[in-house]
Every structure is written in structure tokens, then in C-alpha cells.
Amino acid sequence: MAGSITLTIIKPDAFGAGKAGKIIAHLEEGGFKLVAARVMRLTLAQAGEFYAVHKGRPFYTELVEFMTSGECMPMILEKAAAVSALREAIGATDPAEAAAGTVRKLFAESKGRNAIHASDSDENAARESRFFFSETETIRS
Ligand code: IDP
Ligand code: MG
Predict the structure, then answer these.
(1) Domain residue ranges of the chain, discontinuous segments joined by +
(2) Options 3.40.50.300, 1.10.357.20, 3.30.70.141, 3.50.50.60; which CATH number does 4-40+72-137 get?
(3) Any idea which residues carry the catalytic annotation?
(4) 16-33 pLDDT, tens per residue?
């Protein structure tokens, strides 16, 4: 039976450092199935819209600039309870506080440049998946 889905982004720090393959391998080893993937560079408007929930926060401008600073890799992942499983797999926002073995502990530089995004609810996973992918690009078994 198919699991649920979540949306992840390998952020420009990790993608630019050539860590995408290692991060994908780590997620696959953790039981996540790749359902859709692309490489792109976000425009300021796209990054601003994607992170609109954070508008007004002190780090918003820095976040939008960082997310547009280079290529990134949005992906839809499938697993049982995918949203919570991926949040656990990526670790705390600040890699200094992330648990051992998490993506951010292994691959992130700092709280801002933290290698990876993960949806925080099923509702946002659906919204964020539609933001990057059309229905025909999403193959689910
Ligand atoms: P999350 O990515 O763990 O869900 P959020 O609080 O949703 O964390 O913040 C979104 C992104 O904004 C973070 O992943 C990080 O890149 C950036 N960010 C959050 N808090 C800070 C901060 O205090 N300083 C710099 N960047 C931050
Ligand atoms: Mg978040």
C-alpha cells in the first residue's frame, strides 16, 4: 500500500556543495521513496511565495535571498507517515541542535544554511507539492 507524501527541498548550500546524491541516498536508506524530483533555481517571487508564512520574521529576507542564491532540488517523497518521518530524519532547524544521524547534523552548515526543507503538516505537504509539481509529474505506486 502506498504511504503518504511529503515535500522536501535540497537547499542551495547542499546542492551547490555536491551533496544532493549523498542526501538522496541517506533518505532512500531511511525508507523514503522518490516520487518526483527536479533541479531549478527559484526566483525571488517564487521563494517569497513559498516561504510567505515567514513574512515579517527577522530571517525572512535572508531566507529568500539564500533560497535564490543557487540551484535547489525539490522532491516529493513517499513513506508511511511521511511528514513526521521526514521531520525526524532531517533533525532540528539548527544543525548544532540536530540529533546524530539526521540530514542537518550530517550535511548542514548553520541555522540559515541548513541543507534541507521538509513540510510541517499533511496540508502543507500537499500545498508545497502542488507548488513545484503538476499531477502528471507525480508517480505513485
Ligand atoms: P524548518 O525548516 O526546520 O521547518 P522554520 O522555522 O520553518 O524551520 O524556518 C524556515 C527556514 O528559515 C529554516 O529552515 C532556515 O533556513 C531559516 N531560519 C529559521 N530560523 C532562522 C534563524 O533564526 N536564522 C536564520 N535562518 C533561519
Ligand atoms: Mg518550517
Answers:
(1) 4-40+72-137
(2) 3.30.70.141
(3) 117
(4) 999 999 999 999 999 999
Pocket test for ligand 1, best of 111, 116, 119, 121 (most atoms within 8 A of CB): 111
The predicted-structure confidence for 57-102, as pLDDT tens digits, reads as follows 999 999 999 999 999 999 999 999 999 999 999 999 999 999 999 9
If you measure from the C-alpha of residue 97 to the centroid of ligand 1, how many angstroms do you get, rounded to a whole number? 13
Q: Which residues surround ligand 1 with Cβ inside 6 Å?
A: 54, 59, 62-63, 93, 111-112, 114, 117, 120
Closest of 48, 5, 42, 54 to residue 132, by C-alpha: 42
Is 116 exposed, middle or buried, given 0-12, 13-18 or 19+ CB atoms closer than 10 A?
A: buried
